[in-house]
Amino acid sequence: MSGSKPDILWSPHHPDRYVICDSELGLYSIGSVGSTETKPGTLSLSEETAATLLAINSDTPYMKCVAWYPKHEPECLLAVGQANGRVVLTSLGQNHNSTCKELVGKEFVPKHARQCNTLAWNPVDSNLLAAGLDKHRADFSVLIWDISSKFTPETSVAAEKIRLSSVDLDSSTVVTKPLYELGQNDACLSLCWLLRDTKLLLAGMHRNLAIFDLRNTSQKTFVNTKAIQGVTVDPHFPDRVASFFEGQVAIWDLRKFEKPVLTLTEQPKPLTKVAWCPTRTGLLATLTRDSNIIRLYDMQHTPTPIGDETEPTIIERSVQPCDSQIGSFAWHPSSQNRMVVVSAANRVMTDFTVFERISLAWSSTASLMWACGRHLYSCVEDEAEGTDGAAEKDIATKMRERAQSRYGHDTVQVWRNHLLAGGSDPQLSQNTSSSTLED
């Protein structure tokens, strides 16, 4: 990511740690202001939170993409895709066990050098790492590496490439034979494994979205589209996928993959990132270039499955986490509607919570109820003490209670109406007595 905007990755294991990917990798720990010791490397993220720099890794230059190993062990293993197409496994200041020591420093080298655009770990078969590369007429653009592979260069040409490398490498740490090779004579700009079936890989190729099945790599399902960047699966609906092209986001249903089920409002500037909220169903955040605004699309009420004639209900709104231009953002994996953003110019970080829209309901009995996020609140009338010590209620409440007790229905024994009304209103008692005397 040298020479480009930074990116953020939350740890899949620790909810208080994340990595800033720029010209180097920086590991941060986030905590409340009171619990975070003030020391060099501590940065204020909000009025309540601050981040402490734990480690820096400058061993992987020319970074273009980074992916965090999804399993708990080893806990801080990162894959780094470089400008020459190599994928390097590295770590950040952790105590390495034997497994991690074997993996850190391992390199996966394609036949022909060209830029690595994207990386994706398989969430189940975590030894599988997919890499998407630029086009080469004599090579494949989607390479799936087995990080446990022991293969070393088999040809003198591959060995010579390693020898001439600008970095001194142990040939035992270099793998040159991918487990799978897909997408020949094409370019791959984005990748993600499908949650419904982790043998399926969705790739944003040069002119289409393609689904590759590792059980039969000779066939693929594809649809022609320009929206091939940033493919990402909704964690709450495994058949729903988002991708983008320039300023437009396409929403796909994998069960009806012929065309997008929804195209979101086109933005005036090119998009740089889209991401589903992991703690809130149907909430998609998008960021455009040179902007300090994150636009949110709430698809909470979209019918599932989406019918051919159904027009989904989308609610759009924008939030401004900071004043400066945003370089990137990342949703927190477990804290509801929370994200960290990093500015494009000076790398200032901000901890930000997106507040939910408040849905309000007012009942016919004057009770008030509203929902905010996962919380439901109610407000009922609180009886206030009157000047004479008796409970004073709103007149509407009095009328409803008297109607429910059939006040006024006894026309024979009129005095009983005072008791039906509760017997505590002296004015009613006086009026009832007067009516009885007159009779």
UniProtKB/TrEMBL annotation:
GO molecular function: zinc ion binding
GO cellular component terms, semicolon-separated: lysosomal membrane
Gene3D superfamilies (UniProt xref): YVTN repeat-like/Quinoprotein amine dehydrogenase
An individual GO BP term: cellular response to amino acid starvation
Stretches assigned to coiled coil: none
Keyword tRNA-binding assigned: no
Keyword entries, A-Z: Lysosome, Membrane, Metal-binding, Repeat, WD repeat, Zinc, Zinc-finger
Compartments where located: Lysosome membrane
One Pfam family named in its UniProt record: MIOS_WD40
Keyword match Cytoplasm: no
Membership in a protein family: Belongs to the WD repeat mio family.
UniProt-recorded name of the protein: Anaphase-promoting complex subunit 4 WD40 domain-containing protein
Species name: Gambusia affinis (Western mosquitofish)
